Amino acid sequence: MDNVELTDALADLAGLVGRVEETxxxxxxxxxxxxxxxxxxxxxxxxxxHFAQRTPGGLRPRAQARTGTG
Length: 70
Known about the structure:
This protein is α+β, with helices and mostly antiparallel strands. The chain has three helices and three strands. The protein has helices at residues 6-11, 13-23, 42-52; strands at 2-5, 27-31, 34-39. Strands 1-2-3 form a three-stranded mixed β-sheet.
């Protein structure tokens, strides 16, 4: 994961987002050397959002297809 200073990230945010999407790598944004946020590729963010929407009790069991006689 690359680190980018906040002032540099703000100067060329569109270019930074394009690089994240192109490479698929996370980028850590720092402010004075301290991590403040992380930029994620859209596909990875969508996957995280998918799992965040699951029930708080854990994984929901998947419905199993019924084939044949049981």
